[in-house]
Amino acid sequence: SSSSSSSSSSSFSPRHIALLVFIISCSPALGWQSSGVGTSMLAALRSLSLRRILRAPSSFPPSSYVMMAGLSTAGAVATHQESCASERLDPLRGGGSEDLEKRLAELGQGHLFEGLGEEQKAKLLEQAAELDGQLPGGLEGYVTNARKLLKDSKEGVNPYEGFAPSVPQGEHLKVGSEDFERMEKLGREALSQTGFVLVAGGLGERLGYKGIKVSLPLYDALESECFLKLYISHILYIQEKFGKGKKIPLAIMTSDDTHAMTEKLLQDNNYFGMDSSQLTIMKQNKVPAIKDSDGHFAIKDGKIETKPHGHGDVHTLMHQTGVAKSWKDSGVKYVVFFQDTNGIIFRSLPAVLGVSVSNKFAVNSVCVPRTPGEAVGGICRLEHKDGRAFTVNVEYNQLDPLLRSTEQFSNGDVADAKTGFSPFPGNINVLVIDMDSYHSTLSSSGGRVNEFVNPKYADASKQAFKSPTRLECMMQDFPLLLSTESKVGFTTLDRWICFSPVKNNIQDAAAKSEKGLPPESAGTAERDAMALNTRMLQMAGAKIPEVGQAGTYAGIKLDFSPMVVLLPSFGTSLSDIKDRISPGASIEITSRSALVVEGEVFFEGKLKLDGALELRAQPGSSIIVKNLEVTNSGWEIVEVKQDDPSATVTQAMRGYKVVKHETRSIVADSEKKVVDEA
Length: 678
What we know:
4-stranded parallel β-sheet
């Protein structure tokens, strides 16, 4: 699916559709794939009903039938060359429903049709064709890999057998150091050649929130500033300052659960100022659920039961939709993958991008110092006896047994005596990938990614499962697809500059806090964002304390900084913030203060703040602070009880709310406003 919608036309027959797909997909010399004509035609074709096509397979050739199935289910069609490179297995291609049923039986799935009437059978076959079209390798590839992985699981095969772990080489950047500033400068120069991919397939139910996670506000005091708006605002700032006249592309991977709500959030807010042409939405599909170790598909209500495949699907979709190729052809050299509720990540991305440029990394994983036992994977160098070697993430529940199996790390996942952290940096699932390596690797694999299985067995026979399982894939396993010549590394940064996600509800966060682990709640994410903003102002020359109000909220102890909110339009990186404050400027902010800065705001003189102040320069305007002193009652953080009916859902998720007693607001709408109140 794409962000732009097109109405379907009943005048298109299946033969017309097949002909159009053939022309666009198999004639790369025409250059239509990247043109407005080709994009519009593909969008129109995507809007046609898969059900209508599958009900008339005899009205166009088998090859076109296959292509259309892939188009409607994957969200777009890959070019003919990319399709040929995929080396697919095609067990279900060609023939009608009888042939399809026969081939499913040959895959050991004959049980699916037991007790079904003709209409039910037809619907199941339609679903099977759809699943086959969306899977790289088709259903045969899925079943073959499932049986191999299930056999290994049943026999207790160790996937790391023969591999020796070691601490990989990477960059460790200290914010504000000469190396950090050098990398940030290098990264800013490469931003015009960067595309961004947001993995946003999750709902907020586990957090106690009914909507999609990207619609959550990062700041309680600014409810309209949801995560998705913040991310888009960062990209638009980058585009304006460093885009060199280019539009910076954004792709968003959604799921069945989040797709419609994500589209609605964007459309209701006019894409938060982004041109819809630079934004692509790719809906993740589900895969067949498996009921036993023989790889039999589970059936539910007369249909193949399906489950999510994992966020590794983002790579498959980037290939299948043609986005990777389109971006490469348009000059994109780096792709940044980031997660849905890590609101501070953009602050560090220019420096991380600089590390990728400097080291010529094919893949660069953003990492933080990791606490042993923390539910964060570790980046390891794995070397096999046969000479194979990978630098890749090892999941936290696999890291300890892997380490204990070696002589060097026989104590397992424990802290280094000098640092107090694990020697293996913590993976935060933010990747910077070189586009040439990315596109060539996906073309070679046909969009396939490494899969794994994690069945929960019903008994000691390890034959049946407690509930159906499925094959899964992870975004961070992409390095396993690379050639041995590819250079894979990481960038470790202090957690405060790059990682504070919203992962847990208030109760689970309190339990983690008691154990000394990061709570990773809505409250800690806001606290950390304001603390980061405070430190950036400090590093830019402001006099501002790091600690403001402190307290315990719903069982979580939170030490807040002053409530500083620097919106993306004010600046993304540390260098951007420094550029806003003149060397001779004097900024003094007290611990109880709140400051919100938006847009083209410059500090050239004196600011003294003891209270709450908002400085908002709308697009096309600016504010220059020459001399300003503000004292008022300000804002206050007040505890919220979980049963308080007056609290909003997002306030209950935090355990507190921000009460605005008094605020000084200075707004520039369409002009240059100089503030000089000497």
